[in-house]
Amino acid sequence: MAIATVDDIAAGLAVSQKIRALKNITACKAIGSMESSWLAVGFPPAGGAPPAYTAGSGYTVSSATVGALPYTNGVVKNYLAKLFAVSAVGGTLRIYDRLWSCGGMGFAAATYTVTTPGALPARITNAGLGCEIFVEQFVAAGAASGTLTVNYVDSADGARAGVIPAVVSAPLIGQVQAVPMANNLGVKSITSAVNSATWTSGTFGITVAKHVASIEVPLAGIGKTLDWAALGLPELVNDMCLFFVWHGGAVTATQVQATPNIIDK
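Below the sequence we write its predicted structure tokens.
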């Protein structure tokens, strides 16, 4: 049955899926920078680096992909109705649906054209509206400078460019840099990435993801819980590849524990 009253939510929480996740997040490059949990050890186990941008496939992922938070698809509809998080340092924990990624883009001042990027997963039914782009480090890289431009197609089939005006130098493994979007129409597919200057070493990748929820952990070792009203009761469509992005309030490595409660109504 659909949710009609608060009592329906309470009834769902009484029998909800509780996913107790624990990830060891590597050190952040700087206060306020972001670290992906995708390669981090813990539970769920570490995911794998994606294929190279020249591999010629869609690179899409789902809840069955190693690294995704495990959950059971909804019989009616799944919703995130409660979320707890705690960390050894303060910061913000973000939950995303990981959709598409590629790796192996080099450090030369060059254009890296994605071979046959393919469509986003079938669970995205609006051509990528609301989806975001990140530069993700599947390996550490050397000193870098200049701009990094990601060329993409938005949900209205417009050719767009998102530009990081000053790429982070010597990015760490697991680090993600948000790509400023050209408009509010999201991203349907990735076309290419362009470095304006040569990095000394390493490679980077591109990841497309859709934000689900965020929770602040303002104090080290002090947990925080958000209820359905604070979360906005986001729908979790079937087969989402849920993973964490940690927005660090300190540069030290940390262990993040989180418990999403998922109801099926």
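The two ends are 6 Å apart (CA to CA).
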